[in-house]
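so my prof wants the structure for this chain in the tokens format not the other one, which i didnt know existed until like an hour ago. anyway here's the sequence
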Amino acid sequence: MLKITFLMSVIAVFSVAAQDGIVKTYYGKGKVSSRVSFVNDILEGESFWYYENGNIKTQKNYSNGKLNNSNRSYYESGLLKEEVHYTDGTLNGVSKFYYENGGLKEVRTYNFGKLISKSELEFDANYVAPYSAYEAGMNKKNFNSEDILCDADICPQPIGGIKEIEKNIIYPELAKKFNLEGKVLLAVLVGTKGESKKITVHKGLGLGCDEAAIEAVKKTRFIPGEKKGEVIETEILFSINFKLSENSETKFLTKTETDSVKSEVINKEISQKQFIICETEVCPKPVGGINELLKKIKYPSQAKRNNVSGEVEVETKINDLGFVISVTVTKGIGYGCDEAAKSAVIKTEFEPAVQNGKPVETTVKIMVPFILE
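here's what i got, hopefully its the right format
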């Protein structure tokens, strides 16, 4: 038994240690997390470690198992974080360190492990790194993905990815109030300097989300597209997600809740989130959510010409099957919006109200939003 155990141990060690060439590790779904170079089981040449977005995290150069020459680390955006020089595994020469915005932070000089000098620079909040500074750390092979479409060899890429654009979104208050979520499909013309020259909404979401998406893109810098090795002006097509956090859900109010509200603070909160008011235990709600009702709203041209926006309050009777029986405008804004609100509600299928565990017929108040885009 001892001999067998020893033999298995030898085989296991040999299997792990016997590495030659490029050894890859993965995050999953084919995403490479590292590419490490070996020659005769010894680290040799360039090795890379990557972020999950495909950008380079660390680049190291080995010679006979020891760090040599220039070794770099990058921020997830692609900007250089540090560049450190080694000779036979010992710090030697000039090493540079950078702030997250790309500005130089610190310079150190070593002489075979001994620190000779050190200079620190203050953070400059106004510094903007040129797009070329991002290129070394960004993996262009990952640029052309299903997320971004274009007809160039290499599509323009938002610095930090589409998630960085979504971080810049200021969620419209009206969209929050009506719990509106979804995607805005945009076409963006990216210039040779990485600027967004023209932004067009191909498929909107409404309630201010389209404008919010455009503003978020305007705040974003891009790595420009390439064709046949040359930087070119390129139009790209991609979607931006609008998703509310859990604490921003639409509020469906019962009569008991509205009667109990007394403080000004709570009244303000309700006015921001109220959509349907009912007197049953569970209020009716549109099948598929508020977005299904919003899709059915046709903004009257007369209201657009006169710059009319606001909310139309409609009293709606919904039977125990979820069908709308009658709709009456109790508070309108005119210019065709009242009729458009009634039409949208009539065309909407609802989940019926519930009382004592059973679906029932009820009358509710629905606030239908009209906002110019």
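also thought this was worth mentioning. The chain has a mean pLDDT of 82.
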